[in-house]
Design a protein that fits this description.
By secondary structure, the chain is α+β, with helices and mostly antiparallel strands. It has 21 helices and 16 strands. It has a five-stranded mixed beta sheet with strand order 2-1-3-13-6. A four-stranded mixed beta sheet has the order 11-7-12-16. Helix 16 packs across helix 17 and helix 19 packs antiparallel against helix 20. The chain is globular, with a radius of gyration of 22 Å. The two termini are 27 Å apart.
């Protein structure tokens, strides 16, 4: 692998970035996708872990041949932690059948463990901080750099080329560059949509019933009269917008580049040429939207248990997601809705965070590093295995149609496709637009770069402050991003606590690094 920095790759301009393909996760506020909020990094022994991060992985790789010899003759079962919905009772049985295929192909079985949307951040923190054994872990821009600094992930810079050459050649070099931390790669990026584009969508039943012009619903403010009209007509027990702890208001901070630092409370306005790092919660546009969200909660437009509900139901009238226009067909299937009408409300935009939006890392302590990479290679190059991981067991969870499309037979498969691997070898679901990837390419071609594109905040020198800041944010985020709290009453306290926790120090360090990076 060429040892190119993220900055040198991405600074080549949008033409180079567009070659990166498709990478960001398609978060959906009403289908159970994780929000962009962040959780605290473990504070204990962080400096020591960070110091050892660069040395631990190479040492593990040096011992790979010895480990392979020791485990000769056995079929390894790899522990793979990811995020998703509540698994069905027969999920492990289904994974066992999927493992039969992976064992046949690469001599490896899987033990897929799913943390719920609301528990994922804290669960991964606990696993990393406690040293609990795992082989593979889904990671993203909220925790990737943090876990690398803690020494949790293996350095796969060279190993990915020798152990999984097809995987390495399949994913564009620009994406490998986007996954770098201090010049080394610690996770395999997911090759799909790399630019962020946000959509609102409404059940066509209500669009027709209330003559809603979706082309005009392009902001929270434009959505306001629509949801109020529906609420008044449908009655007290109907909630036009449904949220829960795992599905907060999706994309709330989209207008700010979070610098891939995993800190929701800071960012740079996407078009700010001065690249001024700010506290996002102090910005008037953010505060205005928080007030609107709260008014919806007070007026019964948002479900009253949104801030305490750990997992929502289905059949939502309204949704808010990152994706592309024809992705609405999949959103409808996931919600059990016949048809959603969509409208773009934001983007497309490129940031370093979108490039790190979905990745899979190998544990530095894994006894099966090569095998773990072969699993990721299989899921990115073998369409049959890709379909099984995305949809479940053929004949039980899904079936193939004559045109090669997939019909889902059940709606309880809880392992999200966007966390696994590329979409480009994945069979489309019944009713999906066969040209949907052309939509993705068009969005990438039209994407505007953030002024901070290529920069990733290194939190090494402020890890304790970041951990403390995120602890404070965790205290407030469920109430604020579901509308349950009145921002005029709690926001000043939240900001004061963030600053007491060290937010100003973190902002100053981020500003210093940005100034050095771009000057």
């Amino acid at each position: 692998m060429k040892k190119k920095s993220v900055s040198k790759i991405l600074a080549l301009g949008m033409s180079a970035v567009m070659l990166a393909g498709m990478l960001a996760g398609c978060g959906d506020s009403n289908s159970g996708a994780a929000d962009n909020s962040n959780t605290p990094a473990p504070a204990a022994s962080e400096d020591a872990a960070a110091d050892n991060a660069d040395d631990a992985a190479p040492a593990e790789q040096d011992n790979q041949e010895e480990a392979s010899a020791e485990k000769s003759g056995e079929v390894p079962t790899l522990i793979y932690w990811t995020v998703g919905g509540t698994p069905a009772d027969d999920f492990d049985e289904a994974v066992a059948k999927i493992s039969d295929y992976s064992e046949e192909k690469i001599g490896v079985r899987l033990d897929v463990k799913i943390a719920s949307w609301s528990d994922y951040d804290q669960k991964m923190n606990t696993i990393v901080n406690s040293g609990e054994y795992f082989d593979l872990m889904f990671t993203n821009n909220t925790n990737y750099n943090k876990f690398v600094n803690l020494g949790a992930f293996a350095d796969i810079t060279d190993l990915v080329q020798t152990a999984s050459p097809e995987l390495y050649s399949f994913i564009p070099e620009e994406l490998w560059a986007g996954a770098q931390v201090k010049g080394k790669v610690y996770a395999v990026p997911t090759y799909k949509d790399s630019s962020l584009t946000q959509f609102y969508y409404i059940d066509d039943t209500y669009v027709q019933k209330y003559n809603i012009d979706m082309t005009k619903v392009d902001s929270m403010q434009a959505l306001d009269p629509v949801v109020r009209e529906v609420k008044e007509a449908e009655g007290k027990s109907f909630y036009p917008i449904k949220l829960d702890q795992g599905s907060l208001w999706n994309g709330f901070f989209n207008a700010y580049d979070g610098l891939a630092g995993g800190i929701q409370a800071l960012g740079v306005k996407l078009d700010d040429e001065s690249r001024q790092v700010v506290c996002t919660l102090e910005q008037e546009d953010i505060q205005e939207n928080l007030r609107l969200l709260h008014s919806w909660y007070v007026d019964g437009i948002i479900n009253p248990d949104a801030n305490v509900l750990t997992e929502g139901d289905k059949g939502h009238m309204f949704g808010n997601a990152q994706g592309w226009p024809s992705a609405a067909a999949g959103w409808a299937v996931g919600q059990g809705i016949e048809k959603y009408i969509v409208n773009k409300v934001f983007g497309p935009i490129y940031t370093t965070e979108t490039i790190q939006g979905s990745m899979n890392a190998v544990s530095v302590n894994s006894n099966y590093k090569e095998e773990a990479l072969k699993v990721l290679e299989l899921i990115n190059t073998d369409s049959k295995f890709r379909d099984m991981c995305a949809y479940g067991v053929e004949g039980d969870h899904f079936e193939y149609l004559e045109d090669g499309f997939v019909r889902k037979l059940r709606d309880d498969w809880s392992w999200p496709s966007y966390t696994q691997g590329t979409f480009f070898i994945l069979s489309n679901q019944e009713g999906a637009d066969p040209d949907q990837w052309e939509e993705v390419k068009k969005q990438n071609e039209e994407a505007t770069p953030s002024t901070c594109l290529g920069f990733a905040f290194d939190i090494t020198d402020v890890q304790n402050e970041v951990a403390n800041v995120n602890t404070v944010w965790d205290k407030y985020k469920y109430d604020l991003l579901t509308g349950a709290s009145d921002p005029d009453e709690v926001l000043d306290d939240c900001i004061a606590e963030l600053k007491s926790a060290g937010l100003d120090t973190v902002i100053a360090e981020a500003q210093k690094q940005i100034d050095e990076f771009f000057n």
